What does this fold into?
Amino acid sequence: MTKAVIFDLDGTLLNTLDDLADSCNETLRQMNFPLRSIDEIRQFVGNGIAKLMELAIPDGKENPEYEKSVLLMKENYAKNWQNKTRPYDGILDLISTLHRMEIKTGIVSNKPDAQVKELAEYYFSSSIKRETAVGDIEGRNRKPAPDSVLEVMRILEVGKNETVYVGDSDVDIKTAKNAGIPCISVTWGFRDRNFLLNFGAQNLADKPEEILKYL
It folds into this structure.
């Protein structure tokens, strides 16, 4: 029986794309780099801010201003993370249903840890505890490494046979595999159904309520 569901954040629980795109283009504008389209940025997100900027700026990490772009992006996103971000339709109902079913919930993201906790508190404070909303922490391997997922499982006091991971990307599929737990791949996020199937998705949900059938 499933006792815990651990979620990815961006593209799974929250539509953060517009705020990420606005912050990215604000950074590119400040640095006199070419701007990126929303569809380009959709493909760049999922591996944290550093990877986003590596893909967004000319020449990536080889650009002498790469490190500066990452710092500036973090500053811009810290100001913009709450402008347009919203839960996907049906997500709040899903979280409430899991809470009523006494299924524990957590979040693991490659977004900076402080922002993950801020977003979790703002949108899900009644169901997801601050300590089980985990982002990128210095010294800990990021997804697709399983480190943060295993840490949240430890806090929730659940085993691998009692936990599922829910995400919208290939990174999430790899993360769940590395953690030794099943993955439910959602199709409303930053990657489409065919992309997910090509990366080995086995359990697909087109709407939040469809997640329940896999538990």
The beta strands are 4-7, 14-15, 86-87, 104-112, 133-136, 163-167, 183-186, 203-205. The longest helix spans residues 66-80.
